[in-house]
DNA sequence: GTTTAAATTAAACGTTTGTTTAGTTTTGCA
DNA sequence: TGCAAAACTAAACAAACGTTTAATTTAAAC
């Protein structure tokens, strides 16, 4: 799908407003206003508000799909390093696309049967298979434990990252970081989160229970 | 605050519908219908939809506050066992009050400056202080590492639990558990989650990085 | 039994919602 | 230049929204 500048503008604004106020909380008029287009253009281009949400998801999900396919091709890396690289890819993506991931957090618990949710599930399945294959390699090499719960491991990675990203204003307050400049805070977030998840994964994958 | 049966009915239905469709997605008419009361009764009792949400939060937050104060009083337990007990308390609460915790997940990222969010932050601060004191004990006894990031640790606990609870239908599908009876699945959820988080916490608190 | 307050109702209030219409302007091509 | 298609607009649409009103029923107190 190729979009004009105006369509992209609508998609970007919608993504932000949906993330900030929720799908039902952001009106098409608000979106049109912020995107500097007439209200009717949203129906004209995307059909409906619901379809706008779907289009928005398709855009990001295909972006993610490309990233997944290009991830961890380097066979020179050890299984553990592959996992580490995957963690960094994940964090980078989630921090860089915060608005979208807030949307995901909400929509995956609301519209359980919608096309939007189907896309999320498909993407998770792909991700899970990728991780599972890496872990199997590690187990065959004797580097990893044999009983690893991959879905739970993913849940911790995604859950921890989501929690930190969606409630970063609370995290700032709990750590007295209100005065830290936004950009530096974001970089700190990535670094801390990355190190934290790697420690956890190392424990899950290698230490005996 | 003491509520009549009818008021409690409204609060329960509102909690469920807010969790299922979001605050803006659930109308006062839907709530009134499901709670078997006239629409006007909601304004009559609670003042407004927004105030209804606040009342709902106050009810659960005070419930949680009581739980926190009664937690980990047993000084015979080792620091690690205290942490373990805290994890179980947390999971038990979140699984038993799923609707409310879905609400928390959403509202803590939307209404950043609202009274509702203030309550969440206050509760988190209390929780954090409790955990911090336990960890300090463990460090003084030489049982725990000295560099423990308590907020990040909490983020992983809450984030993992939230992620698993709010997307349990996806978790079921990823693990081919669609046919497992609901009740058994919920029990499994608690057990798995408990064991998983304890493993992680043990690693974070004791193994050297 | 009468009185007063609380509980409850159906209806209406004024907004806002997402979407459509009908008309106008702009664009690209012959 | 002329013309059809696409882009765009302001206005109107019906439906749904949260809330209020005014009237009625129920409950409690004296």
Structural overview:
The structure is a homodimer of 209-residue chains. With 209 residues, chain A is mostly helical. The first copy, chain A, folds into 2 domains: 1-47, Arc Repressor Mutant, subunit A; 53-206, Orthogonal Bundle (Tetracycline Repressor, domain 2), CATH 1.10.357. The first copy, chain A, is built from 10 helices and no strands. The first copy, chain A, has helices at residues 5-21, 28-35, 40-46, 49-69, 79-96, 98-110, 115-140, 150-166, 168-174, 182-206. In chain A, helix 1 (5-21) packs across helix 2 (28-35), helix 1 (5-21) packs across helix 6 and helix 5 packs parallel to helix 8. The N and C termini of chain A lie far apart (48 Å). The mean pLDDT of chain A is 93. Chains A and B meet through helix 6, helix 7, helix 8, helix 9 and helix 10 of A and helix 6, helix 7, helix 8, helix 9 and helix 10 of B. The structure holds a DNA duplex (30 and 30 nucleotides).
Strand content range of chain A: under 5%
Shape of chain A: globular
Oligomeric status: homodimer
The CATH superfamily of the largest domain in chain A bears the name Tetracycline Repressor, domain 2
End-to-end separation of chain A: 48 Å
Largest interface: A-B, 49 and 49 residues
Structural class of chain A: mainly alpha
Total helices of chain A: the number is 10
User: Quick one: biggest sheet of chain A?
Assistant: none
